[in-house]
Design brief:
By secondary structure, the protein is mostly beta strands. The chain has 20 helices and 90 strands.
Length: 1450
């Protein structure tokens, strides 16, 4: 059996974070990584606070910052460690990423392509370096010298790789001949064998660089002779440290400091920055400070150190904690924030004396937060906590000074960033009127202060201030991992219009998180609108909703101030009219309390409508018909302009106050709304722009830019010479008079501004200030003047951007429909000779050139600042994101480029008959010219609080972007194809929307608000505040049974005295930390409100663990089918090593009772039908043919459930510990914890349970499930090494020994641990067509799984023909595409084993993540690859689309 793997929800857990200058040297970014994803965020001021015109500096304290997402990169390898470094000659930081076994990639942001570029690759997986070991348990740790002289990677736990960086100025003297670019930033790397430094240097625990040494100095914490808690009585204090000075030129590394006999539980070293220096060593129960010149200082944090260490430790009074799994980050040079394994946050202050040596520690419990896996300090006052067990948080911390040993003289304590000037003299806080004067002083202040801090520290601090901190959450990043048990259930609020769909509508519910971060995640992949009402209106081709006239008249000028505009729009955002266009007429509906048709109004109703919308700040309505334009205020017509352009009007695009109109022949007209001199109203004025007579214009879009990114003047650099020339050019050229206005405020960063004020305008160009005195002196982000642009595409594939209203060409891209990765401005003046020679090549391209059907340029996200260019090209949707690019050489052209976004919206329809390419091409041309001018891309604002773009058509999608800044694409397949869409806000339908489906039904809907749509899948997280372990959906009552556990400390120990069990209570002193045991309970949840149903909680006994929970259908005489669904629970009682295990089987029915008054959920209750202790631990359950199968100890029993009792039917012996069982018909697949899988068969006739076949090789199984393809059955297994293996039962094959052995037929590495599977039939309904998919999909199942990283994926069986074709494509793609960080997808997907297995790799699984990259390539690259493997682009895309359609569940 061949299969295809694809990830349909990316991993969400976060394991690494750092704060560095990723994009530019002006702005620092948060870079976070989890599994194989790398995300870049930045801090931005909260939008509400930013609107206030308050003093910027005073505002920074009160304002809450949020995270804005800037970029995501997906790699073919799991990131093991991540550090940042600044390389010589670079203006931004590079990232050092290490990957499993021993790979190191150094990557950097590339401003030209808005992507990662790989600077250097290092590979150390030769057998000579492995010392004969096959597996590598050590994570390759990377550490970077604090002064960026070199990086070091620890590989295989026994070797150090040193990667020296070229220093600026160090090598310039010898090779001054070379240009700067040709020199590498890296010097050759070399390997140090730790064994050569010291024979005892093995079992390395941690490696760090120390601060304040002349040469790079490594601190190594290691344990030469190991011990463990049970052996501490004999061997304790086994850890040692050693510090090595690296001389990179001579490659010598002397030991400069060593120390032994540290506590055995040391696990982490944290270097202390200057001016204190030294290192903090974290042990589980103690904390030590070591420095080369001073005696060590250590404190004991709990009572466990008394017997486990002889190291001189002082008692730390007032705290009782253990530091294992703690995450640490310095916030000042002498204060750290520590997050413990229970989520508590402590602030640790190091008390120093005048000699800069640490004399004591002070712990202050500040808050309780998420269980962290990484942590870093961001701007002053902000801390990021990354977590893989819960949502990651952005915390703001503020200090309250309590008492102090020696207050600073005049309080000039200044933080590094120079932002939080809390203790400054008040004179500095006041903002003087002359901005430039104030700014200059601040810049000098900054520079001086930073230097002083470096050299002296702030000398007034001889004692240490004790401060306590308060923490508050500013923002969070959603995480649905780790996904434990996941089940499918039915969504509750499905509108009855969708109840009779051929495919069941399902949602996915998963147990996520751990301890207090435990939750249930309810996921739906597609959007199901809540239908308010439906009208049948056949024959409508398009529709628009418009806002009625405002109550109060806007002031005379059209350019109003922002605040006034806000007031108006908030009052009258209700849509007053709905305009429906038909083939030959238009219908006008008034939408007040009810919807009525208007017979007499100023609207044109005789013919179809091309466009209708609001203009002039929603004060007026513009209606465009094929032969003319009308301007209305409410129902009154103000102006009617008949337009004869030689052909009917086909398209209109509005960027208030401009409207661009295009006819079928590509003629343009620009309408501008101008204030009317006489009547005090507004009028439309007409301009026919004179554009160069090139090819015909096919489509266009106008755009109002609020981001300030669209500018044609250069960004100001900090040195004046560079800045001078482009500024002067811009001033001299009259062409950019209207554009250069935006230059001043174009790119002021939030942070830049807080530091330097308005550097762009006032510091460097006073002349400008005199020219335009009206301009405010302090340019805040909000005051960027909007600019107006028009983007158009011509028939020959040229995309142009013009300024409005004067139509100057500022951007030109050739061959736009080919879908290149980056759109680069390629404007050059071609002479007639050049054009004639190149005409033949353009002709060839014309054959392949797709047809552009629609363009849309739109600003999304925070303040609509992220500009996206969307285009429908043939059957595809291209989405480009604009990014700044200042190295452009063209004057007066836009300083932007566009980067293609990899998205999941595939809109390719299934072709019924095979038409030749030529025919389809011509038919498409005709179709696009006739009536298919309907705009498929519709912008919506505030539909249930979300804004974005709706993509109508055969596969409707919603594209959302919130202020978080990630583009989210969610399909809406539930109602089939959507012909047109409009947002609709009304009294009866607040913040809703309208759409027409294929059957001509107009649906008025709202977006269900119980889900959060700003996630990869619409999700709802139900916090449980305890660990969820199992979950099962009970079909009959439509409720969920959930097993949760709470950890409680215990002081009891179980002892056996003869036959009796005795519990003895253990006495310990108050500093002792008691162990915890988990208390399990079972509870019923209702999917109506996702609350626990009251009075349904069933607590388990002490020490009793629930090992499995299933909904089983057992034989019952009470039902028609003879089977009834029960909830079965298996438990094991664990008392410790000396006491034998026992377990119970519990069987419940969910019954309906009369609900209690005021509590409608209490209509369901558990009724216990069976609960008896078994002879051994019960570890797994499933049902088979109406009987119950249970694994008890090393046997599997089959039980019949009669008269509330279990009667034994059959049993069989198994291997070590069966932890999962799943059934199909009368087969049971059992997963053993060490011994792979076995297939059992229960025969009804002779009531026997027999072994059919098993895998004889050892395998640590995590989960198992069946794969079904028509008549073929295969067995899918996930293991501890993140592999997936597919087994077959083939008794006729020789190597199966007559069917005794299961044969491996495919294997694959997922890159994440998989512990839960579920199976579904392929989806049969296709939204684009009425017909159900027939053929192979009806008898084929998709096997889905959720991982411990928070990702979701599936495996689907493939036919051999398709598999071979896509395999060739996959191999071609591996070579054809550059992969981020130089990783090889083939190596990533190879099955990995801990030992040398005597099995060849079978592969036979396609990597969908790689194959889907084909859909993002340009047309030329696609056709090259298709030719290489001897097939066509259409064939490949159809194959991919088939898989998309089959797996479009949830």
């Amino acid at each position: 059996m061949y299969a295809l793997y694809k990830q349909i929800h990316p991993p969400t857990g976060i394991e690494h974070c750092l704060y560095c200058n990723f994009f530019t040297k002006d702005e620092r970014n948060l870079v976070i990584a989890g599994s194989n994803q790398l995300h870049v965020y930045r801090l931005h001021g909260d939008s509400e606070a930013a609107n206030k015109p308050a003093d910027k500096l005073a505002d920074t304290k009160a304002r809450k910052h949020k995270l804005e997402h800037l970029a995501t990169f997906s790699l073919f390898g799991n990131i093991m460690n991540m550090q940042s470094t600044r390389l010589a000659g670079s203006s931004r930081d590079a990232l050092c990423l290490s990957f499993q076994d021993a790979k190191l990639s150094v990557v950097e942001y590339d401003p030209g392509t808005h992507d990662l570029k790989t600077l250097s690759l290092h590979y150390f997986e030769e057998d000579a370096l492995k010392d004969g070991y096959i597996t590598n348990f050590q994570i390759p740790e990377v550490i970077v010298d604090p002064e960026n002289r070199c990086a070091v990677m620890l590989i295989y736990g026994r070797k150090l790789v040193v990667l020296p960086f070229r220093r600026e100025g160090a090598t310039e003297d010898q090779d001054g001949v070379l240009t700067g670019s040709s020199k590498s930033s890296f010097l050759p790397s070399y390997v140090i064998n730790l064994h050569d430094i010291d024979e005892k240097l093995i079992n390395v625990i941690d490696v760090r660089f120390l601060h304040g040494y002349y040469e790079p100095t490594l601190f190594i914490l290691f344990e030469p002779l190991r011990t463990w808690p049970g052996r501490v009585a004999i061997r304790k204090d086994t850890c040692c440290i050693v510090a090595i000075s690296l001389n990179i030129e001579q490659r010598v590394h002397p030991v400069i400091w060593s120390l032994g006999n540290l506590p055995f539980d040391c696990f982490k070293a944290i270097p202390v920055p200057k001016p204190i220096g030294g290192v903090l060593v974290f042990a589980v129960n103690s904390l030590l400070y070591l420095n080369q010149s001073v005696p060590p200082y250590g404190v004991s944090l709990n009572g466990l150190t008394d017997g486990s260490s002889q190291f001189p430790l002082k008692q730390q009074y007032g705290v009782k904690l253990s530091l294992d799994c703690a995450q640490v980050s310095f916030v000042t040079y002498d204060r750290l924030v520590i997050s413990l394994k229970g989520g508590e946050i402590y602030v640790l202050t190091m008390m120093t004396d005048g000699m800069r040596s640490v004399r004591g520690f002070h712990f202050d419990k500040a808050a309780a937060s998420v269980l962290t896996s990484c942590m870093c300090k961001m701007e002053e006052g902000y801390l990021f906590l990354g977590s893989r067990l819960g949502n990651s948080l952005l915390l703001k911390y503020t200090e309250k000074i309590q008492e102090s040993t020696d207050l600073a003289a005049n309080g000039t304590k200044k933080d590094e960033q120079g932002e939080k000037k809390e203790g400054e003299p008040p004179s500095k806080k006041k903002r003087t009127d002359d901005a430039s004067d104030w700014i200059a002083s601040d810049v000098s202040l900054l520079a001086d202060d930073l230097d002083e801090l470096e050299v002296y520290g702030s000398e007034t601090h001889t004692g240490t201030q004790l401060t306590s901190y308060t923490f508050e959450v500013c923002d969070s990043i959603m995480n649905i991992g780790p996904c434990g048990k996941s089940v499918m259930g039915e969504p509750v609020f499905l509108s009855e219009e969708f109840q009779n769909n051929p495919d069941p509508d399902l949602e996915l519910v998963s147990c996520t998180g751990f301890a207090k971060n435990g939750a249930l995640s309810v996921l739906q992949r597609s959007i199901r609108p809540q239908v308010v009402t439906t009208f049948e209106l056949p024959g409508c081709t398009d529709m628009w909703t418009v806002i009625g006239p405002p109550e109060k008249k806007p002031s005379e000028e059209s350019e109003e101030s922002k605040e006034e505009e806000k007031e108006i729009t908030e009052e009258t955002k209700n849509h007053a009219f709905l305009i429906l266009s038909r083939e030959d007429s238009t219908m006008i509906l008034q939408t007040g309390q009810e919807i009525m048709e208007l017979d007499h109004s100023g609207f044109s109703t005789q013919g179809p409508t091309v466009y209708a919308g609001n203009i002039g700040n929603n004060a007026y309505i513009l209606q465009v018909s094929p032969m003319g334009v009308r301007l209305l205020e409410g129902v009154n017509q103000l102006q009617h302009i008949p337009l004869d352009l030689g052909s009917p009007i086909a398209l209109c695009s509005v960027a208030d106050p401009y409207a661009v109109i295009m006819s079928h022949n590509g003629e343009l007209v620009l309408l501008t709304l101008r204030p009317d001199g006489f009547g005090g109203g507004h009028r439309l004025s007409i301009i026919r722009p004179q554009l160069a007579q090139k090819a015909k214009i096919v489509t266009l879009s106008s755009y109002r830019d609020a981001s300030g990114m669209f500018t044609s003047s250069n960004k100001t650099e900090s040195n004046i010479e560079e800045l001078d020339s482009p500024e002067k050019k811009a001033k001299q050229s009259t062409a950019t008079a209207d554009i250069s206005m935006t230059s001043e405020t174009s790119n002021i960063d939030d942070e830049d501004e807080m530091l330097y004020g308005e550097s762009d305008t006032t510091l460097f160009s006073p002349t400008k200030k005199e020219e335009k005195p009206s301009f405010p002196t302090t340019a805040t982000e909000e005051e960027i003047q909007p600019t107006y642009w028009c983007v158009m595409c011509r028939e020959n594939g040229v995309l142009e951007i013009y300024t409005l209203p004067d139509f100057k060409l500022v951007f030109l891209v050739k061959n736009f429909p080919m879908g290149h990765r980056v759109l680069v401005d390629t404007f050059q003046v071609t002479t007639s000779t050049a054009s004639s020679s190149s005409s033949s090549t353009t002709e060839q391209l014309h054959e392949m050139m797709p047809h552009v059907k629609e363009l849309y340029l739109v600003g999304l996200g925070l303040h609509n600042k992220k500009t996206h260019l969307m285009a429908r090209v043939d059957e595809e949707l291209l989405i480009y994101e604009a990014f700044e690019y200042h190295q452009s050489t063209l004057d007066n052209h836009l300083k932007v480029r566009f980067k293609k976004i990899h998205h999941s919206v595939m809109t390719r329809e299934k072709k019924s008959g095979k038409t030749s390419k030529k025919q389809s091409k011509t038919s498409q041309q005709e179709e696009s010219d006739e009536g298919s001018r309907v705009q498929h891309l519709r912008y919506f604002e505030d539909v249930s609080g979300y804004s974005g773009v709706f993509v109508s058509g055969p596969y409707p999608h919603w594209l959302f972007m919130t202020s978080r800044g990630t583009l989210r694409a969610h399909p809406m397949y539930v109602d089939g194809a959507v012909t047109c869409f409009a947002p609709f806000h009304n009294v009866n339908c607040p913040k809703g929307f309208l759409y027409f489906n294929r059957l001509g039904e107009l649906r008025i809907c709202v977006l269900p608000t119980h889900l959060s749509y700003d996630a990869h899948w619409p999700v709802r997280k139900v916090p449980l505040r305890c660990t969820p372990h199992f979950l099962a959906y009970h079909m009959d009552s439509k409720t969920y049974a959930v097993v949760t556990a709470v950890a409680e400390p215990t002081n009891r120990v179980c002892k056996m005295t003869g036959e009796e069990k005795e519990f003895e209570e253990v006495e310990r002193d108050e500093r002792f930390i008691f162990p915890t045991i988990e208390r399990f309970s079972l509870q019923l949840f209702s999917p109506l409100s996702w609350e626990a149903i009251p009075q349904t909680k069933i607590e388990m006994d002490d020490w009793e663990h629930i090992t499995d929970l299933k909904t089983v259908s057992l034989k019952s005489e009470g039902t028609v089918s003879g089977l009834k669904g029960y909830i079965a629970v298996s438990t094991t009682v664990v008392y410790g090593e000396e006491v034998t295990c026992r377990g119970r089987i519990l069987i419940f029915d969910v019954i309906e009772v009369v609900p209690e008054p005021g509590q409608p959920l209490t209509k369901n209750k558990f009724k216990m039908l069976y609960s008896k202790e078994q002879k051994g631990p019960v570890t797994a359950l499933c049902d088979v043919e109406g009987f119950l199968a249970s694994a008890i100890g090393q046997k599997i029993y089959i039980w019949a459930f009669r008269d509330s009792d279990l009667v034994g039917v059959a049993f069989i012996d198994t291997q070590i510990y069966i932890h999962q069982m799943c059934n199909i018909k009368n087969f049971i697949l059992c997963a053993d914890i060490k011994k792979s899988i076995a297939l059992l068969n229960y025969s009804l006739e002779n009531r026997t349970l027999s072994l059919v076949s098993k895998d004889t090789k050892p395998l640590e199984v995590y989960g198992c499930e069946y794969m079904v393809d028509d008549s073929q059955l295969a067995f899918l297994v996930s293991d501890a090494d993140k592999n997936m293996i597919l087994f077959h039962y083939q008794p006729e094959a020789r190597e199966s020994f007559g069917g005794q052995r299961l044969l491996r037929r495919a294997d694959f590495n997922v890159g994440s641990h998989v512990s839960t599977f579920f199976r579904l039939r392929c989806k049969l309904s296709d939204p684009a067509s009425e017909k159900l998919q027939t053929g192979i999909g009806e008898r084929r199942h998709v096997t889905l799984f959720a991982t411990l990283d928070g990702s979701i994926g599936f495996l689907i069986p493939m036919t051999e023909k398709t598999y071979r074709r896509l395999l060739m494509l996959q191999n071609a793609l591996i070579i054809h595409m550059p992969h981020a960080a130089g990783l090889n997808p083939k190596a990533y997907r190879m099955v990995k084993h801990q030992y040398r297995a005597l099995i060849n790799q079978h592969k036979n699984v396609l990597d969908g993540d790689l194959l889907w990259k084909y859909s993002t390539l340009s047309v030329i690259e696609r056709s090259d690859l298709a030719k290489k493997i001897g097939t066509s682009i259409e064939q490949i895309l159809d194959d991919l689309m088939d898989v998309e359609r089959w797996s479009a569940h949830f």
